[in-house]
Amino acid sequence: MKPGTRILLVEDDHAITSFVEPQLEHRNLSVRCAYDGEEAVVAARAAANGKVSIEYAAPHRAVRAVFDWDRIRQAASILLDNATKYTPQGGNVAVRVGEAAGRAFLEVSDTGVGIPEEMLPLVFERFYRLDSARTEGGAGLGLSIARQIAEAHGGTIEVHSKPGTGSTFTLVLPPKPPTPTS
Q1: Nearest in space to 66 (alpha carbons), one of 182, 179, 181
Q2: Regarding predicted confidence, which is higher, 163 or 47?
Q3: What is the distance between the alpha carbons of residues 58 and 40, in angstroms, rounded to a whole number?
Q4: Could you tell me the CA-to-CA distances from 99 to 47, 56, 105, 162, 175 in Å, in that order?
Q5: What pLDDT was estimated at residue 13?
């Protein structure tokens, strides 16, 4: 285990357990989906350091949803990090923000290695890694955290993938998060 891996594992596991009882920070609510999506892409481009091309397709009209920006930024960061991690040098990552059926979405597509169909249901499980022999690192917690963030907002994360072609992960959010129960 690399130095620092245990600390990251504890931090990731804390993030997961903090969503056992989903509590959104209403002080941090955002409605600016396009701006927030673009902000996440800027950060991802800096982190990718030129390894892959990251393109952002802004929506043609305003897309609005109410969400905890810190949590959604974390989910977007996980999706973008995975896309750049599993896309070979010179590949492409495309990010799109939009609205369909009254729900906002953030879509991250890549030209990476892809995921076999039989493995798709497992990618959101805690500690699951498609190939533990890969050198990209990670504890297998990211997609589980992202899914819990989506669900805490009353949303979902969908995945479509084909080995050798790449993957598309779509974070879908309702216009408003669920109301907290007292």
Answers
A1: 179
A2: 163
A3: 12
A4: 27, 15, 6, 25, 10
A5: 45
